[in-house]
Design a protein that fits this description.
153 residues
């Protein structure tokens, strides 16, 4: 394990943390996407970004809220497992593409977007896209400053 570079920047600047948390609260409560789906999206984006703080914290939160070990263990390989609904798969695909923006010239292909839009209305898509963005923000803050899994701010 490498040394923490600094405290989480959002904790260093309390005005930033309060603003981010307000945005997170709005995203979580802004639609009726199941909390479990948002948690899966958070976990998958955090896995892609290598954010140990969010991977461990997200998995522990999900487990505490009743998510099964099978599903948590399978998130990284969601395409090859039978544990996820079509709607969850669409949200996970959207999370992967929106997280890996630089991997392709068409970051979120129409097929990925259209599949998500088959399962979610505009308000729900807004909720998911905001949640992906917030997750990526926290992932980048934590990974850049090497926040360890299990740490508290």
């Amino acid at each position: 394990m490498t040394a923490v570079r600094m405290s989480n920047p959002a904790a260093v600047l309390p005005e930033a943390m309060s603003s981010i948390l307000r945005l997170a609260k709005a995203a979580q409560s802004g639609g009726d996407v199941p909390a479990a789906t948002l948690d899966l999206v958070h976990l998958r984006a955090s896995q892609i970004n290598g954010c140990s703080y969010c991977v461990v914290g997200g998995a522990l939160k999900s487990r505490k809220e009743g998510e099964s070990d099978e599903r948590l263990h399978a998130v990284a390989a969601w395409r090859e497992t039978p544990y996820f609904s079509a709607a969850e798969r669409a949200a996970l695909a959207l999370a992967e593409h929106a997280t890996r923006l630089a991997d392709r010239s068409d970051a979120v292909p129409d097929a990925v977007w259209d599949e998500a839009a088959r399962h979610y209305d505009e308000r729900q898509l807004a909720q998911i896209v905001l949640w992906i963005g917030i997750t990526n923000l926290f992932n980048r803050l934590n990974a850049t400053t090497r926040q360890p899994a299990g740490a508290t701010w």
